[in-house]
Prior knowledge:
About 45% of the residues lie in helices and about 15% in strands. The chain has helices at about 65-85, 95-100, 105-115, 125-135, 175-185, 190-215, 230-240, 255-270, 270-275, 285-305, 315-325, 335-340, 340-350, 355-370, 385-395, 405-415, 425-435, 445-450, 455-475, 510-515, 520-525, and strands at about 15-20, 25-35, 40-50, 90-95, 120, 145-150, 155-160, 165-175, 225-230, 255, 305-310, 480-490, 495-500, 530-535. Helix 16 (about 405-415) runs antiparallel to helix 17 and helix 17 packs across helix 19. It is elongated and about 90 Å long. The two termini are about 30 Å apart.
Amino acid sequence: MSEAPSRSIGSSIRPVAGIDIGTNSIHLLVAAVDTELRTFSVILTEKSTTRLGERDPETGDLSPDAIERAFTTLRHCRELAASHGVDPGDVVTAATSAVREAPNGRDFLQSIQEQLGLEVDLVSGPEEARLIYLGVLSGMAFGDQPHLILDIGGGSTELVLADGRDARVLTSTRVGAVRLQRDFVREEPLPAKRVEFLRAFIQGSLEPAVLQVRQQLQAGERPVMVATSGTAMAIAALAAADDPRPPLRMQGYRVSRQRLDQLVERLLGLTPAQRRALPALNERRAEIIVPGALILQTAMEMLGAAELVICERALREGLIVDWMLRNDLIVDRFAFQSSIRQRTVLHLAQRYKVDVPRAERVAAYAQSLYSQSQGLLHSDDGSGRQLLWAAAMLHSCGQHINTGAYHKHSWYLIRHGELLGYSDSEHLMVAAIARYHRRSLPKKRHESWQLIEGRDQRRTVAAMALLLRLAVALDRRPEPVLAGLQLRRDGDHHCSIRLEPMHAGQDLSLERWSLAACQAAVEEAVGVRLSVEER
């Protein structure tokens, strides 16, 4: 990633709310849309299990109890959105499978508008898939690789084949966790013949969607499988509970096909009471996790996926992105997608009151040092450059807490902040690079170092942190004084940095002194002697 362009971190914040009326749950998201950065951050999320999918068995109507639960939740959502300053016209609401299939679904929506003042879009299956795609698009960096997005809802399952430019296939199949539980589960644990039947039913239901995906895949393409929704999150939570170091969040968490198979077999052997006792499952999710897990397992098998990646963003975030598209805040979806990493870093910088012009100077110095010191101060393959930029932009965010030992505070804030488009391991690396830009070099006893897995990742963190240390040393004053810098190699174990002042005769003794203070760390870390020159 190259240096981010200088920009003003925004005061133009507009609160927007998205409400997803699903078959199993109603989800609320309140977002702060930054009209300058043309992105959004999540202020609040709420979820209530309303089970609209529990319809009248004879008529198929939404039941009076389900309608009452939904009205109570929607009234709560409306009040929460208003309390965060959301204008009624900026509350975007969509109803999906349960409402669109129920004979009284439109009457239900009419009552919502009349009694609560909420206008609800009744979205089709493909439109639901498109909104899910937009939500995932806002939270993951696709790069040049196609992605298969699987969203298992209560009443339907959406399968999307997409890349960063557009969705190639948008499908919606009438098979979901609540629907299967309601229609086919009579006793638990499920008898072997019922499990076999469910797998065959799911396979037959998904076959047309899978065929569409296969027809749109180009020769040699191996898409990344992305799973969203409550079922996927619950499966990931179960898997993570057995990890020696469970992640703080599920975003970017990976579950292998083998691990999923083990979890499904475990769940199939449990009674409902035993499932409810699992810490990773709430009571309502425990009721429908088995059919949901069977959909997930069958889809992975049919698509030949070896693993899946969890995305916490889905339809409700897609509603916010769609609102931004309709309000001309996103013109080019590809540009929007490709800049996820920059925008999320800038959002975090905004949140922690980072001096962005100074951070951008540090990032520019770090990038210059990276380019000039390849093979001497580092041997990075290119992946560390993006992490270095992010760490440079956020290295001082810990000053938001305290100026003393702020590098440790920076590690904590980055570690616990939201960095979209970064995997969990990359997130940890960015935090660690910022952590080690000053004071001591990495030590085995440090938690920030212990969390970095693998020799290669630790080597990258150590090298990028060293470059950031030098870059920060060059920025000791509020206003810039350097026009540039030149790094010269003097053999395999010596280099010099020549500083170029912005104005002739400018005194750079402070910068020379600051760089000299880094000499011991450079020699200890990479065995290179550093000297400083001035033009």
